[in-house]
Amino acid sequence: MADKAPQIAIRRSMLGRARGLGAAKSGTAHWWALKTTSFALIPLTLWFLASVIGLIGAPRAAVAAWAGGAITATLLLATIAALFHHMYLGVQTVIEDYIHHERSRMAWLLVAQGVAWLLALASAISVLKLAFTG
Amino acid sequence: MTDVRDALMVGRTSDGKLVRRPLSPHLQVYKPQITSTLSILHRVTGIALSVGTLVLVWWLVAAATSDAAFVRANGFIGSWFGMLLLFGWTVALWFHFCAGIRHLAWDMGYGFELATAHATGKLVLAATAVLSVLTWVVIFAVR
Fold first, then answer.
1. CA distance B84 to A119
2. Does residue B22 register a pLDDT over 80?
3. CA nearest to A62 within chain B
4. A2 found inside a domain
5. How confident is the model at residue B24 (pLDDT cuts 50, 70, 90)?
6. Residue A73 belongs to domain spanning
7. For the domain that residue A88 is a member of, what is the CATH number?
8. Domain tally for chain A?
9. I need a surface site. Which of A25, A67, A129, B30 has the fewest CB within 10 A?
10. What is the arithmetic mean of pLDDT over B8-21?
């Protein structure tokens, strides 16, 4: 931590920099999305866990028939959307808190966002495939 | 330094020298408390569950692919290593679930008193243990 003695090159306060620019207008959006998705995931997780336990040892046809039903597929897609959105918001917070180097932070955020999207799309397409083709 | 935010990290000693202020909190200095420990665990379980979604997605994709792919996914999940991961994730899931509800209660303004926060923290741990054991009792009963 105690590298070389710090120097102050800029003489502008945060208030001075922000004044006149107005509010960012998105201050609570991240927090709110984390909360709405967690609220939705309470019943969805319980439903998913109960369903999957009921499917233990079942052959693929039974799982496919379950996942492909209209109501199940709807709930599965809702679970996938809420889960991966919630997951990305959480991982994003952890990355922003612990990775201080600007470029690596940006790189990790892009990787996390890409992985979250790919996992969400792969599971959503699997559900849709089961719903439409069985 | 080029960022104004860095200026807040700089202080002056009594002989006028500029020094970088120490960062807080110091995890290695603070005594572990139930509040901070559960907060850290909430993050750790969140990350563990994120990794766990890989197996979940594998299982779903396999179900939509072929019988052989599904047998392979089920084979991994049913192996001792798969079951060990699954057990860990059940515990992580129930912890994150209960601690998340505690967070939602805080968001609505409830439970901030220190005694209440300690009590709900212990409740989260107890509920995690009970629900995890219950889940696996049901799993072995169904199997």
1. 23
2. no
3. B63
4. no
5. low
6. 29-133
7. 1.20.1300.10
8. 1
9. A25
10. 82
Contact B63 A6 (CB under 8 A): no
CATH class of the structural domain B28-142? mainly alpha
DSSP string for B50-116: HHHHHHHHHHHHHHHH-HHHHHHHHHHHHSHHHHHHHHHHHHHHHHHHHHHHHHHHHHTT---SHHH
Q: Is residue A59 part of a domain?
A: yes
Distance from C-alpha of B70 to C-alpha of A63, rounded to nearest angstrom: 10
What does the pLDDT read at residue B25?
A: 65
Q: Does residue A12 belong to any structural domain of this protein?
A: no
Q: Please calculate the CA angle B91-B96-B98 and round it to the nearest 5 degrees.
A: 95
Provide the CA A51 distance to its chain's centre, in angstroms: 23
Average pLDDT over residues B113-133: 97
Mutate to test the interface with B, among A60, A83, A130 (most CBs of B within 10 A): A60
Residue given tokens 């039974």 in the structure block: A62
| ipTM for the whole complex | 0.84
Inside any domain, residue A22: no
Computed over every residue of chain A, the mean pLDDT equals: 91
Give B-chain residues touching A59 at CB under 8 angstroms: 67
